[in-house]
Amino acid sequence: MKCGLVAADGAVLHRETRPTPRTVPPRRGGGRAVLDALLETVVELEQKAAADGHRVRAVGVVVPGIIDAENGTVGAENLAWAGTPVRAELQAAVGPDQKVVLAHDVRAGGYAELRQGALTGTTNSLFLPLGTGIAAAMVVDGSLVSGDGYAGELGHTRFVHGDAAELCACGQWGCLETVASAAALARRYGVRTGKAVDGAREVLELLAQGDPDAAAVWSEALEALIDALVLYTTLVAPTRIAIGGGLVGAGETLLAPLREGVHARLTFQREPEIVAAVLGEEAGCLGAALMAWDRVTADETGEQQV
Amino acid sequence: MKCGLVAADGAVLHRETRPTPRTVPPRRGGGRAVLDALLETVVELEQKAAADGHRVRAVGVVVPGIIDAENGTVGAENLAWAGTPVRAELQAAVGPDQKVVLAHDVRAGGYAELRQGALTGTTNSLFLPLGTGIAAAMVVDGSLVSGDGYAGELGHTRFVHGDAAELCACGQWGCLETVASAAALARRYGVRTGKAVDGAREVLELLAQGDPDAAAVWSEALEALIDALVLYTTLVAPTRIAIGGGLVGAGETLLAPLREGVHARLTFQREPEIVAAVLGEEAGCLGAALMAWDRVTADETGEQQV
């Protein structure tokens, strides 16, 4: 769990990382343990803020799951949450004087990139982190898209067809995530060669050394990513696409072929810039705080919240 | 050209249809002739309104093309327009007292369906007319998406892969429009059988009679459409999808397999209702008028325009 204290001007006053309780077998407390750890973290950070002479106005929590905005409940397989009343528990923990904002982690990351990062100044753009999984934060006509919490699942759209399609954890076949996530690169290299690798980082090192199997899985990932970016460009017309997540550590090895591939495929569409996201692993955490501050501001001015 | 006079409450007071000057070879005046016909139509409709005791407050014009919202210019291959200053010419024709609104025809149709048709009450939804071509109007978080005039080109996204992909008029391969538009159904039936048919309507009649070639092209169209609806649902999370255009005349022959196909494919996504659009060929024309009235209201109240 990445967490921190952020001032009204977006300055990060404190940051820390805490372990998330294990929810995979052997389960030790499951989703309740995760929620308890979250509540404990929030309370302890408030105490730290108070000790440092600050007053916490709002708490922003972002999770890799589907948020029911109306009820404040969250479903997140990786956290063993299903209809878990996260907002109510958080509100009870912090008391009635503080705002509580729940959001999706990738959308929060996209919001941080939009406000302070690679998407600054855009009104139609995309934040696409390529990490263990792939989800997207869509900026459309100046606003971050929520789709009632369901939008942006570009990673679970089919870009591998026919016999090459693999079953995704989501139950569909041929999803972008099965071929182009950091986890997929490592897994597919292992399946292809019978050799275990230490994550996508090692696949990229092998690629740099001219390993043909690394080149093959990389090329398949690029092809699916180019398809996805062309599709997104055709449908939603972003002016800029910021690639984030662990894979963007590959730099131009990733970005240059994406730019060339997209450029070659577009005909009538408006061509987007393709750039690296700039906020790294802090994006989601910072976005949570910015969204929480926005709620404070919106409630004070009567404006509609994000 | 479909045109009419619409009251502030959305009631249609008058409607008529006029021919669009030919712009395909042999060209007779090209894009200028189309623009002149448009200006003449607008002026004559104003005269009719005045004769009937009405005052025209605003003019809404929708075109099947890409509109530069900033400059009011339009590019539309079918009208032989390229950077044509339609807004300025319209404004000059109607004088400074009237508002002029330019919009994309499919988006205007979607707006009419949202305000008075099959999408009423939705905040995340899709209008997908299947006609000579295929474009989409996207409603996201309560607003119609513009994407600076470029968004919604679901018809030019690749849903046919490998050797089966055909070259689309847009220059890309395997677009939805090459297999699932009304024009594509007729063309593909002709190519497959060597027999010319009188449009998609005849293909549907042959399908009803059990013609195996009609069944084959229909099945390929359905497969691509199901892919497109699953993709859109995964990425943008609509609660309702309204299918319009000529093909929706097929009724449940079209809608039932789309519903079944989408239902069978979705796993974690929110399942949308799939319904027929209700405003038919009038949708674009009505949407143009509603958008024009919105501009009048927005300017009077200081609200942001659609």
Kindly describe this structure.
- Two copies of one chain form a homodimer.
- Chain A is globular and about 55 Å long.
- Helix content of chain A is 42%, strand content 18%.
- The longest helix of chain A is centred in the last third of the chain and has 25 residues, at 212-236.
- Chain A has two domains: 2-103 and 284-301, 2-Layer Sandwich (Nucleotidyltransferase, domain 5); 118-278, Nucleotidyltransferase, domain 5 (2-Layer Sandwich), CATH 3.30.420.40.
- In chain A, helix 3 (105-116) packs across helix 9 (283-301).
- Chain A has helices spanning 30-51, 86-94, 105-116, 177-180, 182-193, 199-208, 212-236, 252-265, 283-301, and strands at residues 2-6, 12-17, 58-63, 66-68, 73-76, 81-84, 99-104, 125-129, 137-140, 143-144, 240-244, 273-276.
- The A-B interface holds A 66, 123-124, 136, 138, 140-141, 143, 145-148, 150-154, 156-158, 161-162, 170-172, 227, 230-232, 234-237, 239, 265, 267-270 and B 66, 123-124, 136, 138, 140-141, 143, 145-148, 150-154, 156-158, 161-162, 170-172, 227, 230-232, 234-239, 265, 267-270.
Topology:
The structure is a homodimer.
Chain A: E1 2-6, E2 12-17, H1 30-51, E3 58-63, E4 66-68, E5 73-76, E6 81-84, H2 86-94, E7 99-104, H3 105-116, E8 125-129, E9 137-140, E10 143-144, H4 177-180, H5 182-193, H6 199-208, H7 212-236, E11 240-244, H8 252-265, E12 273-276, H9 283-301
Parallel strand pairs in A: 3-7, 8-11, 11-12
Antiparallel strand pairs in A: 1-2, 4-5, 5-6, 8-9, 9-10
Pfam families (chains A, B): ROK
Family (chains A, B): Belongs to the ROK (NagC/XylR) family.
InterPro entries (chains A, B): ATPase_NBD, ROK
